[in-house]
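Researcher: I'm comparing several assemblies side by side, and this is the next one on my list. It has 225 residues spread over two chains. Same procedure as the others: predict the full complex and return the structure.
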Amino acid sequence: ETGVTQTPRHLVMGMTNKKSLKCEQHLGHNAMYWYKQSAKKPLELMFVYNFKEQTENNSVPSRFSPECPNSSHLFLHLHTLQPEDSALYLCASSQKPGVPYGYTFGSGTRLTVV
Amino acid sequence: QQQVKQSPQSLIVQKGGISIINCAYENTAFDYFPWYQQFPGKGPALLIAIRPDVSEKKEGRFTISFNKSAKQFSLHIMDSQPGDSATYFCAASATGNQFYFGTGTSLTVIP
């Protein structure tokens, strides 16, 4: 399998649930990213990982907790979310942060918080 | 403050027509300007990109026009086809820094 794969594709969770989003890239990239995509808004960068180390956290609430066990896998752990957190969550990867070439997105997880 | 402003929000074009989407930016440190295409249920995919040392880049039916002095760039889709119906995002980045995306344009090409 090639590219950036995200699972699950759709997720419905209650505000008291705990769930995790998974992202896997088979491109040999060293940087991975989480983005939030809401209707009529620019893509919001949430977290950046470079060689498994978190290099950026754009003031994301603590109810979102990322984990990067290796350069190929990225998780987003979710707990006590709010309805306004409903959105498409996109994972992306690139050769390294700050190098825009080869920036590749996954298909996203459509999250609905009820 | 929104780093990249994109317009229009939505666009309807007849098949065979020209689709034009515009973006504007303020940060003169930006040196890479890509356009992404996103189909429903898919993530954004790189369509075409330009650096500020050229004023135009063409790939097939897709052309980026870049105006450095006006700090504007635009995507032109010639001979638009129904298969081009998607959401288009412009973006900008400065080397070593993150991307900033526009709000997206929903393009519908009517057969």
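Model: For your comparison table: The radius of gyration of chain B is 13 Å.
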